[in-house]
Amino acid sequence: MRLFSLILSVIAATTNAYTLPLNCTPNGGIMTSLTYGTEGAIFTVCAQATIHASPVPIYDVLIDFPRYSAWNTFVYSVDVPANVSSAADVYVGMPMTFHSLGLIPLVNSTSNERITYLEPDVMLPFVAWRFDLGMLGGLVMQAEHVSILHDIGDETTEYVSWETYYGAGALLVLTIKGNLQREFEDQTRDLKARVEGLLS
Question: Which residues form the signal peptide (predicted)?
Answer without folding.
Answer: 1-17
